[in-house]
Amino acid sequence: MSVIDKHAPLKKKRIGKRKSPWITSHVVQKIRERDYLKRQFDITRDDEIWLQYKKARNETNNTIRQAKHNYFITNIEAARKDPRKTWRLVNDLNSRKVSDVTSVKKVNLDGNEITNAAEISDAFNSYFTSIGEKLANKIPSSNVNPVSYIQSTHSVFSFKEIGLSTVNRLLKTINANKATGPDKITGRLLKIAADILSPSLTRIFNRSLSMGIYPPDWKMAKVLPIFKNGEKCDLSNYPPISIISAVAKVFGTTVYDQFYSYLTSNN
């Protein structure tokens, strides 16, 4: 067995569970050229081959990225009248692996060590919901009315109808690498399907403004504790970040732009 282990050792190979339908023969060719140059460099350690490998690697990454884009654009457009196919494509585009790097294994609460995931979540919820009140109590009280700082104006603010081109532009400028909100709709999906989604979202945005109703689902946020420094068991060393829906961010941007335009012209 020692001879077998030496000359024919066991090797672990990662096998992808998901299909990659966007991989074409051209993509495969690029991958093979990249891998061939990498093997040649490992053998020769030639700087010229290394430069060729880096160029091939960048070309391969760009080819894969473009192939994915073309695949989803073509198939989403073709499946517009078939909801089942459309949602299958959406699910393929939204699927992401959840990293365990930022997971919290244990925390200390009132001197007790907590390792149960549900109890850790409750501990963070209690801490985050109470920290605001604790900080507010440390602010000295004042008898000054905040309204006294506001200057009166004769101008009146009102929302304007949001244009289709505005929504389309904002969708196409979404950062596709940003985290996904509670609705699990990725920025990458919104960016790729911007031309298809813009008309519907524009109507929803304008309907919300005209009725004065903000969709409750867009108020939801996925709150994650991010370790900063110090003791990992200390709750105070985990500042929270709130991840909201990408659609809500786009809507918020349109509202912000109108408010900012009004305030800068009436300051």
Automatic annotation (TrEMBL):
It comes from the Eukaryota. This is Uncharacterized protein. It comes from Paramuricea clavata.
